[in-house]
Amino acid sequence: MGRVSISPRRAGVALAALTALLVSGCSAEPERPRPGPSPSASSAGPAPTPTVAADPAARAAALVGTLADEDLVGQVLMPYAYGSSATKVSPGSAAGNRALAGVDTPAEMVAKYRLGGLILVGFSADDPTAGNQATTNVDNPKQVRELTDGLRAAAGKLPAGSAPFLIGTDQEYGVVTRITDGVTLLPSPLAAGAARQPALTEAAWRAAGAELAAMGINLDFAPVADVLVTRSTVIGSRSFGADPANASAQVAGAVRGLQAEGVGASVKHFPGHGLSATDSHKDLPVIGQSRAVLDRTAFPPFRAGIDAGAMAVMSAHLDVRAVDPGTPATFSRKLLTDVLRGQLGFQGVVITDGMNMPPAKRWSPGEAAVRALTAGNDLILMTPNVGQAYAGLLAALRDGSLPRARLVEAATRVLTMKFKLADRPAPALSGLDGPAHRKAAADLAAAAVTVLRGRCGGPIAGPVTVTSSGGRDRTRGTLTEALTAAGVKVVPSGGTIVHLVGYGDGADDLRADAAVTVAMDTPYVLAAAKSPTLLATYSSSRASMTALAGVLAGKARPGGRSPVPVTGLLATTCGT
To answer: Could you confirm whether 226 is annotated as catalytic?
Structure first.
């Protein structure tokens, strides 16, 4: 499958020209072009002009010209919903949907509000985004595919139904991974940053894109482009690291990989959540660095993602004092329109971070949606009340406080992205977690393993006892299996101790008697470890544990380099 050929930057000029024809209103006019047929439509009747058929921006502008105000507003909303099926939900999920949108099921929500898309949510115990994940929609690939098929069936009946329905999720890999069963799990972005091989990153994320597409997901809220300037638990291993150049190369690789398989990439969290340790799921982080620091540190990975053709950028709830003090970036025209579009040249879809997060809830759902759209966002994500957001946008459109030109522009951008994603069917589920995909994940994981203290290579003295901080029994079992397969004898106690620590662990979770301590998330905790050998995998995935076993068995050389500085330790003892 080929890559999407039209970049958001190049499409901008055509989109602006087409949008200008539509901003005066949406009433029917004799000369207005009609939208092209959907891929499943009959071929009977006159064919659209070649330009409209070939150009997603032209198709989008033509379709926008046929839509009522209610359809335009629906296209810029992407809420979450309760339930694991589009049409059949539990009583509890129905109650959640009624509170959120006044309907019982996700399919009814799509129909009532003429939605442009829906985000699938869910979380795990170590997920730093759990605070705004009120429900879960995901269980296994078959269930997800049935859900996405049901959502598309509902959306296909809408006036905008010739454009593919957007279904997104946060499949970042590592601590934020919505779908974990039955899929290939990549090592975390920080592991990719340690590997420093963008080609491996691109191959792994291409495998991820193919699997998301097979489940009916066509938009991934990834990769994270935040440079990890500060020690942060909310970003942490979700980032590719502290070096802007290395992070830029990794972001570009991930974008290319996803979009090669027909899944839109949304780089996040603009203008850079890694510059503050404050969690925007709880409070409004203040970004106090100068504009010069932003230009050389925070912006390069976003620019790299844009240059790689990223279809979307997610705006963040961040108070960037050097540009627009006191205004969260999500609501800042200076940041989204002047900087992101004007200076970084992005012409794709700007998507808000979750509008159910505290910094966005200082306003009512309707007012917040209007403010976000006016600032330059094109898609409103996870509003806390769909009905109020929808009504607020309609009211603002009709009283003039939301300029029609801005709504038309936003809807046209969203539909352009949809038509770019429209040229391929979903792959078969049978390809999930296949050998080629597992190899791509394994190659990336193997290149990431880093020695921060101790000998570079050679087998560990056996037998080995694997221990871990609390709650990591499954990962400990995975490493035990991998060590055994690699020929290392593992015993319940008394052997050479290999101790595992991960997300959220601190000095109290270390073992003073461990011969080897392994960091499976950010490696900062290793600064306090006493072990003569310190390793980092930056990830607890099966691929990462298998790669670690290869190093401990002396069968693989650890070539990774820590992508973040760790006090008192070299980035690697294995040379440069």
So the answer is: no
Instruction: Say if residues 306 and 314 touch (Cβ distance below 8 Å).
Output: no
The DSSP output letter for 104 is: S
Residue 393, classed as helix, strand or coil, is helix
The amino acid sitting at 320 is V
Among 353, 378, 505, 521, which one carries the catalytic annotation? 353
Using CB atoms within 10 Å of the CB of residue 134, give its burial: 0 to 12 exposed, 13 to 18 middle, 19+ buried. middle
Is this prediction's pTM over 0.70?
A: yes
386-399 vs 106-113: helix axis angle to the nearest 10?
10
Active site residue 317: no
* Catalytic option among 269, 273, 281, 499: 281
Structure tokens given for 362? 């200082």
**Which tokens go with 266?**
């949304």
Using omega within 30 degrees of 0 as the cis cutoff, is the peptide bond preceding 223 cis? yes
Transcribe 55-67 into DSSP letters. Answer: -HHHHHHHHHTT-
Strands 533-536 and 450-453: antiparallel
Answer yes or no: are the C-beta atoms of 314 and 221 closer than 8 Å: yes
Q: Are residues 330 and 358 in contact, defined by beta-carbon separation less than 8 angstroms?
A: no
Ramachandran assignment for 521, one of left (phi > 0), alpha (psi -120 to 50 degrees), beta (any other): beta
> How far apart (Å, rounded) are the C-alpha atoms in residues 23 and 201?
41
- C-alpha span between 474 and 256 (Å, rounded): 33
Is the separation of the CB atoms in 177 and 218 below 8 Å?
Answer: no
Phi first, then psi: give them for residue 380, nearest 5 degrees.
Answer: -95, 115
208, 258 contact by CB (below 8 A) = yes
Q: Mean pLDDT per segment of 10 residues, for the chain of length 576 residues?
A: 40 43 35 31 37 80 97 98 94 93 98 98 60 72 97 97 96 93 97 98 98 97 95 90 98 98 96 73 81 96 98 95 95 97 97 91 95 98 97 97 97 98 85 96 98 92 93 94 97 96 94 97 97 97 98 96 97 85
Q: Is the peptide bond before 128 cis (omega within 30 degrees of 0)?
A: no
